[in-house]
Design brief:
mainly alpha, two-stranded antiparallel ribbon, 72% helix, Farnesyl Diphosphate Synthase, 2% strand, 2 domains, 4 strands, magnesium, single chain, transferase, Polyprenyl_synt_CS, Polyprenyl_synt
Length: 332
């Protein structure tokens, strides 16, 4: 066994394949953001060189194991999903007025909002250029996923419609903004490697569930973890007024605790105040909603695991199952 994604123990041969595949992805990714314009090249490389887990690219590489892992479209497809993801980060930072991304000054802070937006557009264009060589089916898959990304962002920006269910709205946003591109990652890997249709469909569905679970785990960690554990400031969502799964469970009464009234009052307050923020964070950490949120998270990974168990018994399947375990255990 060898160390694989997120330190998970995986088959040594698969680990070697994954390292080789991701190295090829990194090389093409850097090549793809080059431009004749120095500023555009610099701005495009800004987030690429800042690093990142390359989670989506890794899923493409793993899913390709169910077919011809060396098929010529696998690496370009992995670069397509990474370029698309990176492009959304440039746009997100403008919308959120974020000063920092991946430990570095964000593009909008370093240059301007206009440069950041146009750089994101450029990365989308580069992704489309690569897609054109992968065939009309790949173009259609990516276009539909991108439509979901935009829909999710609009739904999050506008908020819950009159008479709508806030928790259902939140989960739909998570599925569209996060789950959609992660689903496409698995789909591209299996499809372009020539895996059987039922394998492609199963990997696609399981990856969407894993993607949703990853976002839910991030939301739980934002509340539960200390800064030294996660590398992020705890309670960022609380401070910014972003309602995530545990908060929805409290507000809808789906989980009850002794300080419900005070916590609900705080969740409707301006939590940029340090004292109020600290009080809300402490009450939420101790609330039964956290355990309920972890139970909901496990349901998503259990569903993904059930689907994955129908796939051929190869090391890649174990790697995907390991990811399900990792998503759950990282939230404590």
């Amino acid at each position: 066994m060898a160390s694989g994604p997120f330190g998970l123990p995986i088959d040594a041969g698969l680990a070697a394949d994954a390292r080789e595949g991701l190295a090829a992805v990194e090389a093409l990714l850097l090549e793809s953001v080059q431009s004749d314009d120095p500023l555009l090249t610099q701005a495009s490389k800004h987030l690429v060189e800042a690093g990142g887990k390359r989670f989506r690219a890794m899923l493409v590489v793993l899913a390709a194991q169910f077919g011809d892992k060396d098929a010529p479209g696998v690496v370009p497809a992995a670069v397509v999903v990474e370029l698309t993801h990176l492009a959304t980060l440039y746009h997100d930072d403008v919308m959120d007025e974020a000063p920092v991304r991946r430990g570095q000054e964000s593009a909008n802070s370093r240059w301007t909002n206009t440069v950041a937006i146009l750089t994101g557009d450029y990365l989308f264009a580069r992704a489309s250029d690569l897609l054109a060589d992968l065939g009309p089916d790949a173009v259609r898959i990516q276009a539909r996923a991108f439509a979901r990304l935009v829909r999710g962002q609009i739904q999050e920006t506008v908020g819950v419609p009159e008479g709508g269910d806030p928790l259902k709205h939140y989960l739909q946003v998570v599925a569209d903004k996060t789950g959609s591109l992660i689903a496409v990652s698995g789909q591209f890997g299996a499809l372009l490697a020539g895996a059987p249709a039922h394998v492609v469909d199963t990997v696609t569905s399981a990856c969407e569930k894993i993607g949703i679970a990853f976002q839910l785990s991030d939301d739980i960690l934002d509340i539960a973890s200390e800064a030294e554990q996660s590398g992020k400031t705890p309670g960022t969502d609380l401070r910014e007024g972003i309602r995530t799964l545990p908060m929805h469970l409290v507000l809808q009464g789906d989980a009850t605790g002794p300080d419900d009234a005070r916590l609900r009052e705080l969740l409707d307050a301006d939590l940029t105040d340090d004292a109020l923020h600290a009080e809300a964070l402490a009450l939420l950490r101790a609330h039964p909603a956290m355990d309920r949120a972890r139970t909901d998270l496990r349901r998503w990974t259990d569903d993904a695991r059930t689907e994955l168990m129908t796939l051929p018994d190869i090391p890649a399947r174990e790697a995907f199952l390991g990811l399900c375990d990792y998503v759950v255990t990282r939230t404590g």
